[in-house]
Structures are given as C-alpha cells and as structure tokens.
Amino acid sequence: MLGTILLIVLILALVGAFPAWPYAANWGYGPSGIVGIILVIIIVLILLGRV
Fold first, then answer.
1. Which domain holds residue 6?
2. pLDDT tens sequence across 1-51
3. How many domains does the chain have?
4. Cα dihedral sign for 10, 12, 13, 18?
5. Shortest CA distance to 37 belongs to which of 21, 5, 4, 14?
6. How far is CA 22 from CA 9, 33, 39, 44, in A?
7. What integer pLDDT is reported at residue 43 of this predicted model?
8. Phi, psi (deg, nearest 5) at residue 32
9. Could you give the CA distance from residue 48 to residue 31 in angstroms, rounded to a whole number?
10. How far apart are CA 51 and CA 22, in angstroms?
C-alpha cells in the first residue's frame, strides 16, 4: 500500500518538475534534481526492505 502511494507521488512530482510550462522555463535543474534525490532515497529504501 505504501509503495503504491509513493509511486503515485513520485509520478506526480516528475510531471510537476518537467519544465514544459512557460512559468517553469527559468527554474533550471532545481525541481528535477530534488525529484531525483527523492527517487534515489526511495530506491535505497526499497533495496533495504524498509518500504
């Protein structure tokens, strides 16, 4: 159950960090970098069996 919720939140964060909209054009790598760090943390937790 928790894994499904994390997957949905991660997909929404990836869509939100994609700089396709005009107001997000000047954000640079910040949002996608944060999403990448969250993805790495989730992968590590899955590999350790915590999720």
1. 2-18+25-48
2. 777 777 787 777 777 666 666 666 677 667 777 777 887 888 788 788 876
3. 1
4. positive
5. 14
6. 23, 19, 25, 34
7. 78
8. -70, -30
9. 26
10. 36
Which amino acid is it at 51?
V
Q: How far apart are CA 14 and CA 33, in angstroms?
A: 10
Q: 34: which 2 tokens?
A: 């944060």
Give me 46's structure tokens.
């899955």
Q: CA-based angle 2:14:42, to the nearest 5?
A: 40
Label residues 17-27 b or e (16+ Cβ within 10 Å = b): beeeeeeeeee
Contact indicator for 17, 36 with CB cutoff of 8 Å: no
Q: State phi, psi for 21 to the nearest 5 degrees.
A: -95, 150
Which pair of tokens denotes residue 11? 């997909």
